[in-house]
């Protein structure tokens, strides 16, 4: 059902199976690769009258601004304005964090006062006729500070550790059975500490904002993944009616967790545009992007895992702490997933947040599973080694059809099917059981594996579906094309649901003038939007069927519910039919579907959506536990003399419900797997006190084409009739999860060395 080339949507949802389920290239691909595609940063030509902004950011991590020396900056030709807290104090009203009922990715307000809360905070916005002049003037601004001591990370003096349960009202640590006696009774125990570093998003497209006023109406172009939150957040910040604010995201050049809701710089650009009476565009530097946006916080874990002599888990304790800012309740929570992964009678989790003087962290592809499963899946591998057992066999022994914490059934549980498919494709059977025994010339060879799991998320979304008299269709909503291929899925889905050719479908996204649809996040885009589209196409067909079967209609007297779509015609059971183009009439028809996930309160969900709030529900409607699954495999080679670590092959097998486009699905998964390689071996934001020391792509390492090995992503069938009406799970994040552990486990297998702190470096092999 979910395998390549099979199946489309069910009747009554999206009727035909001509397009969905089959590989299709991206409909917006040609524009992207020929340069015709325009991004927010491109809207700055001279004909637009746009002025250019640049940022001055704090060089100290905490304290107060005592003065500005602007003399040199003011001599830069083309300078239009330098805005500091002296200009903008009080101009931006406070807005809460998105996860606390507000709209912002950080509730911190730069340029509101002389207070510096973290290094890299915006302290001035400089605007000039050209980007070069703005950058030159920003570079010439001298700021003096009264510096105060800052806590940069774990263990720093002044860092404040809180139990998550005390910080976030909804968080509850897990306690099932008696973990301590479960550990005491265990025949074998693994007790270990793991650590993952801070990491920063580096999408190709920077965190741009362009603001233009037309009277008291504001239009913002920004590559955000939630135009609705930016609209409502800006309105609240600037004292406007949301109807006065239009936010356009257009195409988005990557985000994967960044570009998260309302940013601190957006209102400042809008204020500058208002003061100067012309559009202002800020294209921040790569260096700026390390501090004006969010990042994956560093994490530390202590895992204690007990097993009986046969390998059955008797107890699991997962204690974790992650860094957050002083001023926001955002914390990366993750032990809920690790606690529920394997059968175990005694489970305890404890999560803590450590408040430091840095900006608020945020989601980064597969928060929190990337760091949390690194810890658990490393510990499971350590347990397999301690038991002298194959790591896959150990996972099979502890596989479970019910969530051990809640007792609810998984809607499907293809974890071991993923391991089986992956192991076959990868050649796991060639793995020598004993670590350090496989060699290829000077290279020590290691094979490792780990699980990938992620709870399915789904959100309310509205979707406008239109069919014109010429047979052209349009689907539109205020969601976003982040590069994941949703434009293509919507075009394929509308083609199936309305019986038109893909080329006759126009997809419009990324604009608050369109019907609202929530955040592109949590791998919820496909689940939410395709269910909304199915609803919209169904509504539109029902309207047409009513008209065609009504008095004077071509199919008068037929039961409207009996009509089916076939070959672009509405066909009755007796074979009579009418072409859709004829059924729509000269005006065409349009409908707006309001999709609300099963189990969510309709009024609340739609109100939240219209108000720009976040509203992600879990798949499975609260009755079943619905996760996407995967098994990651890595072959690493560690040079016996130099310690150089190379990844030779990656194989991943994934089960994520019905697959709508195997081509874009595999692209997503492969991209994630390569990012997982980066997370294991390369990516780390280096902290010096509370300051980032490698904020550029020369020193912040991500995998290049030369680092990327042979990568194979397999799709495992996963028919799930409980997760949502269409059996969709989403897989935007599944591909990265577990890969860091698979590589660390492979390094152990190659060398006998267990590295518990990422990234794994050559010096760890010494
Ligand atoms: Mo994800 S980085 O939770 O959209």
Describe it.
Helix content is 25%, strand content 25%. It is globular, with a radius of gyration of 27 Å. A seven-stranded mixed beta sheet has the order 3-5-1-14-11-12-13. The chain has three domains: 170 residues, 2-Layer Sandwich (Aldehyde Oxidoreductase, domain 4); 199 residues, Aldehyde Oxidoreductase, domain 4; 232 residues, Aldehyde oxidase/xanthine dehydrogenase, molybdopterin binding domain (Aldehyde Oxidoreductase, domain 4). It is of the alpha+beta class and 766 residues long. It contains 19 helices and 34 strands. Strand 19 and strand 20 form a beta hairpin. The structure holds dioxothiomolybdenum(VI) ion. The site of dioxothiomolybdenum(VI) ion has 9 residues, from loops. The site of dioxothiomolybdenum(VI) ion (MOS) has 9 residues, from loops.
Question: What is the element layout, followed by pairings?
Answer:
Layout: H1 29-34, E1 51-57, E2 63-69, H2 71-74, E3 79-83, H3 85-88, E4 115-116, E5 122-128, H4 131-140, E6 142-147, E7 160-163, H5 164-167, E8 175-176, H6 179-185, E9 188-196, E10 199-200, E11 209-214, E12 217-221, H7 227-238, E13 245-248, H8 264-276, E14 280-282, H9 286-289, E15 295-296, E16 299-307, E17 313-325, H10 335-340, E18 347-356, H11 369-387, H12 391-397, H13 415-426, E19 439-440, E20 443-455, E21 457-459, E22 461-467, E23 473-476, H14 486-498, E24 505-508, H15 525-549, E25 564-566, E26 569-571, E27 577-579, H16 580-583, E28 589-595, H17 602-610, E29 616-618, E30 627-639, E31 645-655, H18 662-681, E32 687-688, E33 691-692, E34 710-715, H19 739-751
Helix pairs in contact: 11-19, 14-15, 18-19
Residues 256-257, 363-365, 367, 521-522, 733 line the site of dioxothiomolybdenum(VI) ion.
């Amino acid at each position: 059902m979910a395998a390549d080339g099979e199946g489309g949507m069910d009747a009554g949802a999206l009727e035909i199976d001509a397009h969905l389920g089959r590989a299709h290239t991206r409909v917006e691909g040609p524009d992207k690769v020929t340069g015709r595609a325009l991004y927010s940063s491109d809207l700055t030509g001279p004909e637009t009258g746009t002025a250019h902004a640049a940022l001055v950011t704090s060089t100290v991590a905490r304290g107060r601004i005592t003065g500005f020396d602007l003399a040199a900056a003011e001599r830069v030709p083309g300078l239009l304005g330098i805005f500091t807290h002296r200009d903008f104090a009080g101009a931006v009203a406070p807005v809460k964090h998105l996860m606390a009922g507000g709209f912002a990715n950080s509730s911190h307000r730069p340029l509101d006062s002389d207070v510096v809360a973290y290094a890299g905070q915006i302290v001035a916005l400089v605007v000039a006729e050209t980007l070069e002049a703005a950058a030159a003037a920003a570079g010439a601004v001298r700021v003096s500070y009264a510096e105060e001591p800052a806590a940069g990370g774990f263990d720093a003096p002044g860092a404040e550790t809180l139990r998550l349960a005390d910080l976030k009202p909804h968080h509850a640590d897990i306690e099932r059975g008696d973990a301590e006696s479960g550990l005491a009774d265990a025949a074998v125990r693994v007790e270990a500490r793991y650590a993952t570093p801070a990491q920063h998003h580096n999408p190709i497209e920077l965190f741009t904002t362009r603001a233009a006023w037309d009277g008291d109406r504001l239009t913002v172009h920004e590559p955000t993944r939630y135009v609705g939150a930016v609209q409502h957040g800006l309105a609240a910040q600037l004292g406007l009616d949301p109807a006065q604010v239009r936010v356009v995201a257009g195409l988005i050049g990557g985000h994967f967790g960044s570009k998260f809701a309302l940013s601190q710089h957006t209102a400042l650009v809008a204020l500058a545009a208002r003061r100067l009476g012309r559009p202002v565009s800020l294209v921040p530097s790569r260096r700026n992007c390390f501090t004006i946006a969010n990042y994956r916080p560093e994490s530390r874990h202590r895992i204690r895992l007990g097993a009986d002599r046969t390998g059955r888990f008797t107890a699991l304790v997962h204690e974790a702490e992650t860094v957050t800012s002083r001023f926001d309740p955002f914390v990366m929570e993750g032990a809920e997933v690790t606690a529920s992964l394997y059968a175990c009678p005694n489970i305890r989790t404890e999560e803590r947040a450590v408040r430091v003087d840095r900006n608020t962290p945020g989601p980064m592809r597969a928060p929190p599973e990337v760091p949390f499963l690194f810890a658990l899946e490393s510990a499971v591998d350590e347990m397999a080694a301690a038991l002298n057992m194959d790591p896959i066999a150990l996972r099979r022994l502890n596989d479970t059809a019910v969530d051990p914490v809640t007792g609810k059934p998984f809607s499907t549980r293809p974890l071991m099917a993923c391991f089986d498919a992956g192991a076959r494709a990868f050649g796991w059977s060639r793995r020598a059981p004993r670590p350090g025994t496989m060699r290829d010339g000077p290279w020590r060879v290691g094979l490792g594996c780990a699980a990938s799991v992620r709870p399915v998320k789904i959100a309310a979304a509205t979707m406008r579906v239109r069919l014109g008299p010429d047979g052209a269709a349009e689907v539109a909503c205020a969601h976003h094309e982040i590069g994941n291929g949703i434009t293509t899925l919507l075009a394929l889905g509308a083609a199936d649901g309305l019986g038109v050719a893909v080329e006759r479908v126009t997809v419009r996204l990324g604009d608050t003038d369109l019907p609202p649809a929530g955040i592109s996040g949590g791998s919820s885009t496909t689940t939410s939007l395709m269910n909304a589209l199915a609803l919209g196409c169904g509504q539109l067909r029902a309207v047409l069927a009513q008209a065609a079967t009504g008095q004077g209609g071509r199919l008068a007297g037929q039961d409207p519910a009996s009509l089916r779509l076939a070959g672009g015609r509405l066909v009755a059971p007796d074979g009579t039919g009418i072409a859709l183009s004829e059924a729509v009439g000269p005006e065409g028809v349009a409908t707006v579907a309001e999709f609300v996930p099963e189990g969510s309160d309709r009024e609340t969900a739609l109100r939240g959506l219209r108000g720009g709030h976040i509203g992600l529900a879990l798949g499975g409607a609260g009755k079943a536990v619905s996760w996407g699954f995967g098994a990651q495999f890595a072959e690493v080679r560690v040079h016996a003399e130099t310690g150089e670590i190379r990844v030779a092959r990656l194989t991943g097998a994934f089960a994520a419900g019905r697959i709508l486009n195997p081509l874009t699905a595999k692209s997503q998964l492969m991209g994630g797997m390569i990012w997982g390689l980066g997370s294991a071996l390369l990516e780390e934001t280096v902290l010096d006190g509370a300051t980032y020391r490698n904020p550029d792509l020369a020193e912040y390492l991500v995998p290049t084409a030369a680092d990327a090995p042979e990568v194979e992503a397999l799709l495992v069938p996963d028919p799930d009739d409980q997760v949502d009406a269409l059996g969709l799970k989403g897989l935007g994040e599944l591909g990265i999860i577990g890969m860091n552990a698979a590589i660390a486990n492979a390094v152990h297998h190659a060398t006998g060395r267990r590295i518990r702190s990422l990234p794994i470096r050559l010096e760890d092999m010494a």
